[in-house]
Design a protein that fits this description.
The protein is α/β, with parallel strands linked by helices. Helices cover about 35% and strands about 10% of the residues. It has two domains: about 260 residues, TIM Barrel; about 90 residues, no CATH class. The protein is built from 14 helices and eleven strands. Helix 1 packs across helix 14 and helix 7 packs across helix 8. The longest helix has 18 residues. The two termini are about 25 Å apart. Its cofactor is FMN.
């Protein structure tokens, strides 16, 4: 098992775990084989479904890989808001000739069962989204040799991860596609511009913690990876960049939309899941985003049937088209080739800046995240 972040892969490139089908064994294996760190997304899967994907991935690669878990969410308090949204969506169900989903689903995403499997049959890396695990959970993973990463969207969340015993933190800028990995969903922050851009957030986190930092949010090119490494990150995590690859499990409509000029920009919305998530603005988001309650994962389950029906009908206007702000830079390359191209671009950017040394993580070079940050918290 790895003892340091830079031992995990050849290049400082992490493929983001994209729940909902985007990040499966084929994509993770291709990224790992090319020298990056591939991830499986266990969110929305059963514990057994997660385990079957782990077994499949192990049959495809012998390289280190990661598994991402969703933290349990608070029980829904305002059922009336969800029922009001159900009425709002009645026309969608009629249009797509389906029923709206059942909101009486568990809010823990099978967390404890997944933890048990990952402790019993350890994987190299486990990361967490939507909160920070307890020290007992992180210590248990440390005892079996699993490297742990916690997603954070503020310096305070990063400090909480360090205090709880995480080995590294993944800082997610507001540019990132998909769900914002905030530890606490605060509806009062909606539309206030409270989310920080990646470089500003990275600077704050590097002064707040001493553990290695992975940077995520809108990264699509090797030069951008060079920028976040120069700003103090040890590695860079890319999601949307890998979404368009053949190995991605994303719906073809979703892949095509990334570079379709019909979809001009992204916004944060609660329309599809009840939690802020960045996606391409389409009809569903425009019509329902203003009315969606802060009720995750109830809204996710409520809209799931409509989204599936829209996909079956070939209608991208009814899908959750998660994408980061850099989506127009997506390239339809095989995942392994994309890793190679990103690494070459990173080398070229470093050379242009007059920086020496290889981009390879395991070359003995001390990365920015391997030394304590000036002024970092104990």
């Amino acid at each position: 098992m790895p003892s340091a972040l830079t031992d995990l892969c050849r290049y400082p490139i992490v493929q983001a775990p994209m729940a909902g089908g985007g990040s499966g064994p084929e994509l993770a294996a291709a990224v790992c084989g090319a020298g990056g760190l591939g991830f499986l997304a266990a969110g929305y899967k059963t514990a057994d479904g997660m385990y079957q994907e782990i077994k499949q991935l192990r049959s495809l690669t012998d390289r280190p890989f990661g598994v991402n878990l969703f933290m349990p969410q608070p029980s829904l308090a305002d059922h009336s808001a969800v029922e009001a949204y159900r009425e709002q969506l009645a026309g969608e169900a009629t249009w797509y000739e389906t029923e709206l989903g059942d909101t009486d689903e568990p809010t823990d995403d099978g967390y404890e069962a997944k933890l048990a499997i990952l402790r019993e049959d350890p994987v190299p890396v486990v990361s967490f989204t939507f909160g920070c695990p307890s020290r007992a959970v992180l210590d248990a993973f440390a005892r079996v040799g699993t490297y742990t990463i916690v997603t954070a969207t503020t310096a305070a969340e990063a400090q909480a991860a360090q205090w709880s015993g995480a080995d590294a933190v993944c800082v997610q800028g507001v540019e990132a596609g998909g769900h914002q990995g905030t530890h606490r969903d605060d509806p009062h922050a909606d539309g206030t511009g409270a989310g920080l851009g990646l470089l500003a957030l990275l600077g704050q986190v590097r002064e707040a913690v001493q553990i290695p930092v992975i940077a995520a949010g809108g990264l699509m090119r090797g030069a951008q990876i060079a920028a976040v490494l120069a700003a103090g990150a040890t590695m860079a995590q890319l999601g949307t960049a890998f979404l368009a690859t053949p190995e991605s499990g994303a719906n073809p409509l979703h892949k095509q939309a990334l570079t379709n000029p019909l979809f001009t920009h992204t916004e944060l919305t609660r329309a599809f899941s009840g939690r802020p998530a960045r996606g391409l603005v389409n009809r569903f988001m425009r019509e329902h985003g203003p009315y969606a309650p802060a009720a995750y994962p109830a809204v996710h389950y409520l809209t799931s049937t409509v989204r599936k029906a829209a996909a079956k009908a070939g209608d991208a206007q009814g899908l959750n088209l998660w994408a980061g702000q850099g989506h127009r830079l997506a390239r339809e390359l095989p995942a392994a080739r994309l890793v190679e191209v990103l690494a070459a671009e990173l080398d070229a950017a470093r050379a242009g800046l007059g920086l020496t040394g290889s981009t390879e993580s395991g070359d003995g070079r001390t990365g920015p995240g391997d030394a304590p940050a000036a002024g970092g918290a104990a």
